[in-house]
Design goal:
Oligomer: single chain
Number of strands: 20
Strand content: 25-35%
Number of helices: 13
Strand order of the largest sheet: 4-3-2-1-13-14
Helix content: 25-40%
Largest sheet: 6 strands, mixed
Distance between the termini: 57 Å
Length: 399
Amino acid sequence: MDKVTILSTTDVHGFLTAAANEENGLCSLHAIAENYHEPILIDNGDFLVGSPETTFFNTTMTISPLVELANKIGFDVMVPGNHDFDYGIDFLKRQAEAFNGKYLCANVLDLSDELIFDPYTIIERGELKIGVIGVITGAMPQITDYEQIKDLKFIDVIDTLNHWVPQVREQVDVLIISYHGGIERDMSTGQPTQYDTGEDQTYRIIHEIAGIDGVICGHQHRINAGVLNSTAFVQPGYRGNFIGELTFSIDGNHMSDKKAQLIDTKKYKVVNEQLYDQVSFEKWLETPLDLSHFDQYLARKVPGTYYAVELNAPTIGAFLTNFKPPYTLSTYHVSKSELVELLLSRTVQGIRLKNGQPLPDQSDYRITSNKAIFPSYRLETNYIYNVFDEYIASVSIKE
């Protein structure tokens, strides 16, 4: 009997630890991998972007030291996440070229309909051939700034897999999909858990497409693992707090067993890595930041509202303190009288008081802020945007 194990991370976002006061996380993977015979290591996206440190790397260095770390850990495959496109396709291509493994994505094309990255790879472990197809959520135009992806086409995930799965399936013993997208239904009952926007399609992939042995998903920063329709799946959290494990046992030409579970990295020792000079990072935080484009950024991210965003001194470090994860911007829907009360103590861009009345004169207003400026019962929408990283990236690209 032959056996192969796939260990996976997702949504690391450049963090080496799973939380601020913890040591476990991505750098626990080496100790975990030692417990398996030649495991295949896959990162499922959002590896390069999402922390203050990654912004430092991506705006001051040609190749992120995270790529060197990925090579040192020994990842066999990496797949892009939505935030890995935040610095544009040229940036991402540079990182992919420096990666020693295979960088995969089957549903991203250029405007000439040419694939940007390889759609799949086949890895051999002993007598077994393991195919891995990489895909990213097809909702990229809805969740990523136009400027970063205007030269790209993101093809529907289901259409893409219907094309590639049969071709790869006939060449391999085990077929894995690494999908940077989330889960849209309860995996046990099939009941919807959110509106069907097409951003998250793991359940549909498993339910509709035959021939897949395992799926790695992510994007939502949640944890899940199990087997559905004879397909094993893992969704291994955020920041390396969990590692996904898919194990397949094959007897002759028969798949005799499939297992999916999550490994808590707290149980494993850490290999400490020093990726950057702390003094240089601290100096970078003191760098002046051009905030003159911030109004334009807000208008793109949250159109159709007024803005009451407080910003501290114009340095990178001060800018960071303005936005608290995970909800970095919030839109409140308020009455005229509620707005008047706010205007007595602070400024709202585009609105002024005249004779005690707001101008322009409306019956109600939508106000977007980075602070809790109204009661929670007036909160209409929270936006999970990495404002710090996205804005600095956009300014760096302009420069």
